[in-house]
Amino acid sequence: MIAVLCGGVGAARMLAGMQAVVDPGAIIGIVNTGDDTELHGLHISPDLDTITYTLSGVANPTTGWGLTGDTFRAMQALERFDAVTWFRLGDADLATHLYRTGRMREGATLSEVTAEISRAWGLRVRLLPMSDDPVRTRLRLEGAQEVAFQEYFVKLRHSVVVDSVRFAGAEVARPAPGVLAALEAAEVVVVAPSNPVVSIGPILAVPGVTSVLTARRDSVVAVSPIVAGAALRGPADRLLVELGGQASAPGVARFLSAWVGTLVIDEADADVAGEVEAAGVKCIVAPTVMRTPEMAAGLARTVLGTAGMDLGPSGGAPVAPGA
Ligand code: FO1
């Protein structure tokens, strides 16, 4: 079994590649819920939904989130009122939030509803929220104002400087059922190329997670979300710098080195492989930008190969002639 620490779009793409390479039933995604938000009385879990839609092949290919071909009649109708419409919820996407909110009002846990939604979409990869307890990423901006994650990421288009980040509720949150067991039992734990600060950070903040990862650091492998000094999407590069780190593969290695034994970096960063190793993290150089499903499958093979996983005849990397 493979456990994957997941944020949003980057993690979804890698999981899609992974389920093409190994039995999807052998993959457990442990998903960030620090981005979750309550809007219009609805509980919205963006990273769980982005992964669910992507693995089902129905995610909007341009944005990476929401449903392809969705309409926004409800959002347009809300414009008449003084309501939040900067967070775009499609009409079909709303069904997910209506169902999740209704079931949780009936007493279902986020884990239970996530399993129901996964089953309804025919997912074979198992998705676990990092916790069933509320954990909310909050960012203190320059000048002391504190905002919720989606206000930072969407309303402010993350075009503001961040002084500090906290995960409200993490200190009393419990790992969701199965999370620690999966992290302990997995042949390999993969850290997806998600934002290390605000997508992987909340998962690491759930009590019990870092001690399990630290104990098995040699079989924890991460993919750098920073390529040639920049994030492929979102504010990961700026956040690393604003929080005192460095927007580079070695900067990511230093950020994760307590829990991660191997970092896969893109070929564009081959020249800093030595600096990654100097941070005490084994370094693998490979193509990590998942422009196509085939490239995502190739990255999955690289990542699982570093852990010596036997990918079997279907998923094994093609053997070079005469190898
Ligand atoms: N991101 C945006 O930049 N603008 C949006 O209007 C937006 C709406 C949205 C609705 C549902 C959903 O599941 C995700 C949505 N996202 C939107 C993406 C979301 O902010 C990010 O995916 C994560 O929170 C960060 O990974």
Write the layout of secondary structure elements.
Layout: E1 2-6, H1 9-18, E2 27-31, E3 37-39, E4 42-44, H2 46-55, H3 73-78, H4 91-105, H5 110-120, E5 126-129, E6 136-141, E7 146-148, H6 149-155, E8 162-168, H7 179-185, E9 188-191, H8 196-205, H9 209-215, E10 220-223, E11 226-227, E12 230-231, H10 236-242, H11 249-256, E13 262-265, H12 273-278, E14 282-285, H13 293-306, H14 312-315
Parallel strand pairs: 1-2, 1-9, 2-5, 9-10, 10-13, 13-14
Antiparallel strand pairs: 3-4, 6-7, 6-8, 11-12
The site of ligand FO1 has 16 residues, from helix 2 and helix 6.
Describe the structure in your own words.
The radius of gyration is 19 Å and the shape is globular. It starts with a strand and ends in an 8-residue tail after the last helix. It is an alpha/beta fold and 323 residues long. It is 38% helix and 17% strand. The chain has a single domain, classed as CofD-like domains (Rossmann fold), CATH 3.40.50. The strands form 4 sheets. The protein has a 7-stranded parallel sheet with strand order 5-2-1-9-10-13-14, sandwiched between helices. A 3-stranded antiparallel sheet has the order 7-6-8. It has a two-stranded antiparallel ribbon with strand order 3-4. A hairpin with a 2-residue loop joins strand 3 and strand 4. It is built from 14 helices and 14 strands. Ligand FO1 binds next to helix 2 and helix 6.
Mean pLDDT level: 95
Would you list the SSEs in sequence order as H and E?
Answer: EHEEEHHHHEEEHEHEHHEEEHHEHEHH
Strand order across the biggest sheet?
Answer: 5-2-1-9-10-13-14
**What is the number of beta strands?**
14
